[in-house]
Design goal:
- It is a single chain.
- The protein has about 375 residues and is of the alpha+beta class.
- Among the domains are: about 110 residues, Membrane-bound Lytic Murein Transglycosylase D, Chain A (Roll), CATH 3.10.350.10; about 140 residues, Glucose Permease (Domain IIA).
- Helices cover about 15% and strands about 20% of the residues.
- Strands 5, 7, 8, 9, 11, 13 and 14 form a 7-stranded antiparallel β-sheet that branches. A 3-stranded antiparallel β-sheet has the order 6-12-10, with no helix packed on it. A two-stranded antiparallel sheet has the order 1-2.
- A hairpin with a 4-residue loop joins strand 8 and strand 9.
- The radius of gyration is 46 Å and the shape is elongated.
Amino acid sequence: MPVQLKNDPVEEMPVKKSSTKRWPVLISWAVTALIVFALISTALWMPEEVGAEPVQATAGPQGNNGGALGDLPGYEPLVTPEAIFRNTDHHTDLSQQYRTGVIDYTVDSGDSIFGISKQFDLKPESVLWANEDTLSMGVDYLSVGMNLKIPPIDGVYYQWKEGDRLDAVAGKYAATVDDILLWVSNNLDLLNPDIKTGDFIMIPGGIGEYKQWVVPVIPTGKNGAVATLSGPGACTVMGYVSIGTNNFIWPAGNHSISGNEYWDGHQGIDIAAGDGAPIYASDTGTVVYSGWNNNGYGNMVMIDHGTGYSTLYAHLSSVNVSCGVGVGQGQVIGYGGSTGNSTGPHLHFELRYNGGTINPWTMLQ
């Protein structure tokens, strides 16, 4: 048996540590990891509640600068129950106001300058100014088959003349040079506009000359017109057979407009009256014209009421009174028709005072 010396080092046997002490640490780390994972998953996958009220930020601990730490931004849902979804439509319908070019229009039966202009959302003057050569005698010379130029916008459609200058043309029609230069269909170089004689340009908003076509037929006494100027229906009446009341009734059974209204280019109203419909004297007076008229009015009757007023009835299919006779208010003087320059049956009615025309709407009862 070996003897152990006193000073010899004693070899210690390795002591095995118990594994049971590590389990609490591992478990705590695992629990911590699960909690972190659960928090992250909740934040990422939390379902959005449609229509929920936005989450308001809550104040956290205050920092040194007084601001809240950890404030959450306000939440607002992208989709609400009131939202409306609409499919995109790439097709666009341009309204008439976006038209820039001039349209060629062929007059049809029943057309009038007033009706045509309304169809294209224009003033009748604009259509008249664009067709001064065609309608040089007046809008009552409109006829079926006639070709008209319809401008794209209210203003003057002007044909350039030799010696014209932009500033002079613009000033003549109450417009500016920029109005002409900037209108797209004129195709003008802003820095060097070159307009050749005979070219047509559009003057947006321009105002042309107002022409009044008045048939000179008041052959009563010394104020009489030359009969050949008006046509074979004129006669010379030296005195008044009947005197009017200055109260004017509608000369037709229909009280609506069928054609042109009263405006600067049309000195009367076109009343709806079918072919053969009776036409009545608007007031008592003396017939000073009865028969055919050479100025586009066709069969026409004119009555002098002896008070400064006179009335004119045109485009009749036939007349029922003779020149120089007296008529009473409401008496049948002829029948509706479409004679002369007319595109359809109607009564062209004028009311005049001392030779000038006035709007019949102001006097008719």
